[in-house]
Specification:
Blueprint: H1 6-14, H2 16-22, H3 25-32, H4 37-64, H5 68-95, H6 100-104, H7 110-125, H8 128-152, H9 159-166, H10 168-189, H11 199-221
Helix pairs in contact: 1-11, 2-11, 3-8, 4-5, 4-7, 4-8, 4-11, 7-8, 7-11, 8-9, 8-10, 8-11
Bound molecules: ligand VIB.
Ligand VIB binds near residues 47, 51, 54 and 138.
Length: about 220
């Protein structure tokens, strides 16, 4: 579950913050089924908006790409988000009587606003790699969380959520994103990226995005 060579380095640099994110109380509640339904729905409505802004960030990555391969990988992710991943949110919320129009019009929580605009700003003020350091946290973190929760296999009403991220299709996406980041880093920073003057800032971006993920889970737990 290392998803390439660069991600494990960024994850190690994030230290305890990474565990705060991937082993958060919200995650434990998903795994053992103790997460209250209203907390899950509050999270899901916000996560719909989150993914809308994430689609915008991956679309920004298309414009920041330097090779046709990078462009294709990022454009495919925009498509996968809008036409694939959002379906879980749309269908689960539809079953609760919440339409997609209501989701789109929902009021954004400050934690959601902070995280999504932080990622978009990483791309606007930086280059493709800055954007990837901010985007990697969410994509690969959920890959790790999904795999761990599926292995624990507790009795939980959130099994759909877990299988979405533990499943072969999503895990394949994670490996592709890991490979995209490895190639993008080698292209821009060479074979010794850790000695690049840019390296500390990339690690800092990754850690900040991880902190914002911790706050996003916290938002789900607090009414
Ligand atoms: C707060 C929050 N963080 C991470 C993800 C996971 N995620 C973000 S983008 C993406 C798909 C990229 O192909 C996935 C799985 C989420 N849904 N919500």
């Amino acid at each position: 579950m290392s998803y390439g060579a660069i991600f494990p380095l960024w994850r190690a640099a994030a230290g305890q913050t990474w565990d705060d994110y991937t082993r958060h109380a919200f995650v434990k509640g998903l795994g053992n089924g103790t997460l209250p339904r209203e907390a899950f729905l509050r999270y899901l409505v916000q996560d719909y908006l989150f993914l809308i802004h994430f689609s915008r960030a991956w679309a920004l990555a298309v414009t920041k790409a330097e090779t046709p391969e990078e462009m294709r990988a990022c454009a495919a992710t925009v498509h996968a988000l809008l036409d694939g991943e959002l379906q879980l949110h749309i269908e689960t919320c539809a079953a609760e009587g919440i339409s997609e129009a209501q989701l789109f019009a929902a009021r954004e929580a400050p934690q959601n606003l902070a995280y999504t605009r932080y990622v978009l700003d990483a791309g606007h003020s930086g280059d493709f790699l800055d954007l990837m350091a901010a985007l990697a946290v969410c994509v690969l973190g959920y890959g790790e969380i999904g795999t761990r929760l599926a292995a624990q296999a507790g009795e939980t009403p959130y099994a759909d959520w877990i299988t979405t991220y533990a499943g072969a299709e999503y895990q394949h996406t994670c490996r592709e994103v890991g490979a995209l980041i490895d190639a993008a880093t080698a292209r821009r920073l060479g074979e010794e990226p850790e000695s690049s003057p840019r390296w500390p800032r990339l690690c800092a971006r990754f850690e900040m995005a991880t902190r914002l993920e911790v706050d996003f889970w916290g938002m789900g737990l607090s009414a």
